[in-house]
Design a protein that fits this description.
- The structure is a single chain.
- The protein has 193 residues and is mainly β.
- The chain has 1 helix and 14 strands, in the order αββββββββββββββ.
- It has a 14-stranded antiparallel sheet with strand order 8-7-6-5-4-3-2-1-14-13-12-11-10-9.
- The longest helix is centred in the N-terminal third of the chain and has 14 residues, at 2-15.
- The chain is globular.
- It starts with a helix and ends with a strand.
C-alpha cells in the first residue's frame, strides 16, 4: 500500500510543473514593495498567482496589496480574479469568466461582455515573453493593449486609456525588469529570485 501511494505521489508531482519568481518594486530609487508570482502547469491547464505588496507615501502612508489569480485552458483564459486592497479594504475588484464564446467581466459589481478570445493577459507577462503576441488583455483595466517589440528582449505596451507606455525586458523568456508608468506613480520592477 505504501508503495502504491509513493508511486501515485511521484506521478502527480512529476506531472505538475510550478515556477515561482520574486521581484522588488522600486519608485524614486526606493524599494516600495515586492511581487511574488507562481505559474503552475498541469496537462492543458495553466494557473497563475500573483501577489504584490507595497507601501506608497502620498499624503499619508498607504498599504497596497494586489492579488491576481488566472486560469488558462489550452492557452485561452477561462477565469481571472484581480483585487486591489488599500489599507486592508477592497478598493477594486474584477472577475473575468469565460462563458461559451464570450467573457463576462464583473468590474466593481458592474457587468459587461467581451467577445474576443483572450490568449495572453497581464498575468502571463511575468512568465511568458510575448514573442508571438501583438495584443494583451489587462485584468485591471479590462481592455486590450497593443504590444510592440522595441529590441531583442524588450516590449512596449501602451494603455489606450492613458496613452502611457510601459516597457518589459525578458531574460530566457522570463520577465527580468519592467518600467511601468501609471497615472499617479512610475515604478520599476526588478527580478531578484
Amino acid at each position: 500500500m505504501k508503495l502504491l501511494i509513493s508511486i501515485f505521489l511521484l506521478v502527480v508531482i512529476s506531472s505538475v510543473n510550478a515556477q515561482t519568481y520574486k521581484y522588488e518594486i522600486i519608485s524614486k530609487k526606493k524599494i516600495i514593495g515586492t511581487i511574488e508570482g507562481t505559474i503552475t502547469k498541469k496537462d492543458n491547464i495553466t494557473k497563475v498567482d500573483i501577489v504584490a505588496l507595497g507601501e506608497i507615501d502620498f499624503i499619508l502612508k498607504e498599504h497596497i496589496k494586489y492579488k491576481l489569480n488566472s486560469m488558462y485552458k489550452d492557452g485561452e483564459l477561462i477565469f481571472s480574479s484581480a483585487t486591489i486592497f488599500l489599507n486592508n479594504k477592497i478598493h477594486f475588484s474584477s472577475v473575468v469568466k469565460k462563458e461559451g464564446d464570450y467573457y463576462i467581466i464583473d468590474k466593481n459589481e458592474h457587468k459587461e461582455s467581451f467577445t474576443d478570445p483572450i490568449n495572453y493577459s497581464g498575468a502571463l507577462l511575468y512568465f511568458i515573453e510575448p514573442k508571438t503576441f501583438t495584443r494583451i488583455f489587462s485584468e485591471i483595466d479590462n481592455v486590450e493593449k497593443d504590444i510592440s517589440k522595441e529590441s531583442k528582449d524588450t516590449y512596449k505596451i501602451i494603455n489606450p486609456d492613458t496613452e502611457k507606455a510601459s516597457y518589459f525586458t525578458y531574460e530566457n523568456g522570463i520577465l527580468k525588469t519592467a518600467n511601468i508608468h501609471h497615472t499617479y506613480i512610475d515604478v520599476k520592477i526588478i527580478r531578484i529570485e
